[in-house]
Fold this sequence. Notes:
With about 200 residues, chain A is an all-alpha fold. The first copy, chain A, folds into 2 domains: about 10-50, Homeodomain-like (Arc Repressor Mutant, subunit A, Orthogonal Bundle), CATH 1.10.10.60; about 60-195, Tetracycline Repressor, domain 2. The first copy, chain A, is about 65% helix and about 0% strand. In chain A, helix 4 runs parallel beside helix 8. The N and C termini of chain A lie far apart (about 45 Å). Mean pLDDT of chain A is about 90; it is low at about 1-5. The interface between A and B is large, with 42 and 42 residues. The structure holds a DNA duplex (30 and 30 nucleotides).
Amino acid sequence: MTETKKPYHHGDLREKLLSAATNLIADGGVxxxxxxxxxxxxxxxxxxxxxxxxxxxxxxxxxAEQGFYQQDQIxxxxxxxxxxxxxxxxxxxxxxxxxxxxxxxSETYDLMYGxxxxxxxxxTESLKAISKNCFKLWLEWIxxxxxxxxxxxxHPPLRIAQSSWAALHxxxxxxxxxxxxNQDDVDEIAKTTVEILIKKTS
Amino acid sequence: MTETKKPYHHGDLREKLLSAATNLIADGGVxxxxxxxxxxxxxxxxxxxxxxxxxxxxxxxxxAEQGFYQQDQIxxxxxxxxxxxxxxxxxxxxxxxxxxxxxxxSETYDLMYGxxxxxxxxxTESLKAISKNCFKLWLEWIxxxxxxxxxxxxHPPLRIAQSSWAALHxxxxxxxxxxxxNQDDVDEIAKTTVEILIKKTS
DNA sequence: AATCAATCTTGACAGTGTCAAAATTGATTA
DNA sequence: TAATCAATTTTGACACTGTCAAGATTGATT
Lengths: 202, 202
């Protein structure tokens, strides 16, 4: 998280830009973030940010990167704190936390997994690295859970990891994008999803 | 699909705008569609489109609406053509077709279920109507399938409809947005998803 | 033939991302 | 200490964007 190059004059322009940009996105979405508005907010000229981020895409990638870091922290806390929970319940806890994160940081989540960066733009190498790592962790956990009998063993763990994550992601997006609107339902749908995903033990 | 008002001078500006807009979106995404470029392509002045669509949002809604209509047609064809298939296999067929549609019309799909319209913009009444109808059909089918034993009966059909659709949607989006990149995997992941969703009959 | 309203165009305004060139300034070297 | 250098910031410019207001065109209606 420490930067290799500290800006000369302003002192910590890069950091200030990042936090201000995150704020702008938090209230108003990515559309609310323009380089010029951002520069204005921080108190520099329109093109000053271009000395710290090659272009808008790189700025967005940097924000998304922070998001991954943050999400990783939150989610990692579960497995270390709730060690007494049985595997299946820990999984449910994870899912609910994941969805809550997506819900509370909806605009960041949008950036992290949205087309703005991954399709329309170009993901930074470091962004690719951290996101790939996040999925790797997920895959490893799924592998363990499958060995423990939480998931069926008739599919390779990679496929289960992919389709289960897609299920989570889809739910997040539908709420996030305003297609599903009733926020009260989110927990119940999430729990239904979990129960469908895990092995039936009846 | 027939319009109530035919434009005076141009003859069928509205239709031409719609199809040209759909083309622009098809190659280059929503970002590639600007009112001005569109007007230029059709051969009218920059503001001519505003006499047929209140603003860009309404144009996007109209395109999305066509998408829903199209998707409905494609998907409806399955249940009428393959009447001999057992319910579970018909469901798989549906899922694969749905995903294929999302894949082949990725930009339209993006519009249909994306934040551009539902969160950032404002969905038209007619768009809300047709999309709601699509989900209603899905829900009704899920209800039938549950009664037939394809799905577990320990959850209300609404919840199953919501979470299963979310699973599909998530898969579509991950490929659509360039997060999942290996297109060869899509069918296999889809089949895994289906097998996870439906009731185990071992 | 005159009127009207739907349609289309021209002009304008406030935004946007980003490039090129000039200005500032802290640190480094002579 | 003074001169040089390179990192940083600014100003100016360009080509875009959506959309509003006002005027021009024109088919249909009276």
